[in-house]
Write a structure and sequence with these properties.
By secondary structure, the chain is of the alpha+beta class. The protein folds into two domains: about 10-115 and about 145-275, 2-Layer Sandwich (Alpha-Beta Plaits); about 290-300 and about 395-488, Alpha-Beta Plaits (2-Layer Sandwich). It has 14 helices and 17 strands. Strands 1-3-2-9-5-7-6-4 form an eight-stranded antiparallel β-barrel, surrounded by four helices. An eight-stranded antiparallel β-sheet has the order 13-10-12-11-15-16-14-17. A hairpin with a 2-residue loop joins strand 15 and strand 16. Helix 4 packs across helix 11 (about 370-380) and helix 12 packs antiparallel against helix 14 (about 465-475). It is globular.
Length: about 500
């Protein structure tokens, strides 16, 4: 008897969906002082959860559930079951818990499998410095998005006489999952997800949590997926829950039957709560970020007449990935994603930059770090992505020169001068590589990528007469002054 090969898996944070029903009769009958205390302790508990004061890593969110199945959802992500256990019991110690009942719950753990990237699991292939590795990390340790709506449902893969998922060969299962994922890519920027495994942990095999700002996007995604063979033949689904997020500070409004804004509202003394909900433990890649060092670099460049922006860009957060794919093929894929990205005000720009002899670059700019991180996950699925800018920052230092907008009549002059400067760079200590790329939609929009052994090596060039002369010359050929973004 042939035994099918299960995909390899890697697990991340544990996920707990805690569904609560409010005892509205008890709430209405309670004296004012009990209700006040319950709200204060409920807000304190939920705010501490969302600020992750109980753990080194994780996230939490508070949601109002629509319909009869529950009233509230407390969604927690933590590193260990022990931390989840503490949160569950700590809530029971609040005065607010006396007015609620746990009517449903779901316990699972975030997971990626060989269906996504079999190479990731191959012996000796860590991919720790690749774009796909960062994407996998975001799947294992996801941040709850700022999207207003949430949808949760558990599911299983069918084991029937006609359609049995677990009897299929691995390659066939992977093909099903790949086609299924292509549907999700169409909703990039509009719907995000957390996939968590619950085999041996709860009643079903997986938990699916979807987030979006438009409920119709979530509905349309699920509707379209119903017609995909991986769902129509093999999917079995549990009960669906749908809700909307609100700040813990608005719990009193919720219990009073008032409209509940997503953001925290001011209390009686005009103090704004809820601003601390976006906790930070370093940069998006988990490493502490030295803002003071960046400020010093920007200051030096500013004195030279070069705008260096704010951390990660000019009031924006930049994601830069490199691909070995053909630029035209890559642009078709990016153009589809960009149409979805444009639904959001936080999206600034996404473009493909090409150059002879260099990898094609995809540059995506966003107004918030969280939006940029979400976009990075979708962009990492583009064809033949080989790395993300900053992957090798532990042993080198990089500077990305972006937004070099060249006057059309001087484009050839700019390219020629870049070649001369490139020859000078090759002889400089600490210089590794510099490439000039052009936007495939606007050849006058230039992108320069450099990598150096250290900050000191790069700054030695920036302080050189050659660089000063180039900047001075650029005043005549550029439509605006060069703007630099540091990604290392």
């Amino acid at each position: 008897m042939e035994r099918r090969t299960p995909p390899q898996t890697e697990e991340g944070w544990y996920v707990f969906h805690d569904f609560r029903a409010v005892d509205w009769d008890a709430w209405r009958d309670a004296p004012e002082h009990r209700r006040k205390r319950a709200i204060e302790e409920g807000v304190g508990y939920l705010r501490a959860c969302e600020d992750v004061t109980d753990a080194d890593e994780g996230d939490s969110g508070t949601y109002a559930i629509l319909g009869h199945e529950a009233d509230l959802l407390f969604l927690h992500l933590r590193e260990s079951p022990a931390e989840i256990d503490v949160l569950e019991r700590r809530f029971e110690g609040t005065a607010f818990a006396e007015f609620t009942e746990q009517v449903d719950s779901y316990f699972s753990v975030t997971e990626v499998s060989g269906y996504m990237s079999n190479d990731y699991f191959e012996e000796g292939e860590t991919e720790s410095d690749s774009g796909i590795a960062r994407y996998i990390e975001s799947r294992l340790k996801p941040e709850l998005t700022d999207f207003e709506y949430v949808n949760f449902y558990p599911m299983d893969k069918r084991r029937g006489p006609e359609w049995n998922w677990y009897d299929l060969p691995f390659d066939e299962r992977k093909e099903y999952m790949s086609a299924h994922g292509e549907i999700g890519k169409k909703y990039a920027g509009r719907v995000t997800q957390i996939i968590s495994s619950s085999v041996g942990l709860d009643d079903h095999e997986w938990g699916i949590t979807l987030f979006g700002d438009d409920p119709v996007d979530i509905k349309d995604l699920l509707y379209e997926m119903r017609f995909d063979p991986s769902s129509s033949r093999f999917g079995e689904f549990g009960r669906f829950h749908f809700g909307r997020r609100f700040a813990p500070e608005n719990l009193g409004r919720y219990l009073a039957g008032e409209f509940v804004p997503q953001e925290a509202v001011e209390d009686g003394d005009g103090h704004q709560h809820g601003d601390s909900g976006e906790h930070s433990h370093g940069d998006s890649d988990g490493r502490p970020h030295d803002d003071s060092a960046d400020d010093g670099i920007r200051g030096e460049l500013e004195e030279m007449g070069v705008y260096a922006g704010k951390p990660h860009g000019e009031d924006v957060h930049a994601v830069v990935l490199y691909s070995a794919a053909d630029a035209e093929e890559l642009f078709e894929e990016v153009d589809g994603l960009r149409a979805n990205f444009d639904h959001y005000d936080s999206h600034v720009k996404t473009a493909v930059y090409d150059s002879e002899g260099a990898e094609t670059a995809v540059v995506s700019l966003w107004q918030t770090e969280r939006a940029a991180n979400t976009a990075a996950g979708f962009l990492a699925d583009l064809p033949e992505i080989v790395r993300q800018a900053g992957d090798d920052s532990e042993d080198s230092w990089g500077t990305m020169g972006m937004f070099y907008t060249v006057k059309p009549e001087h484009r050839e002059d700019f390219v020629t001068t870049f070649g001369e400067v490139g020859g000078l760079l090759e002889g400089m200590d600490g210089h590794r590589k510099t490439d000039l790329l052009s936007n495939v939609e606007d050849e006058n929009d230039m992108f320069i990528a450099s990598r150096w052994d250290s900050r000191e090596d790069a700054m030695a060039f920036f302080r050189s007469d050659a660089f000063s002369d180039t900047v001075e010359w650029g005043r005549d050929v550029l439509a605006d002054r060069p703007r630099h973004v540091f990604l290392a």
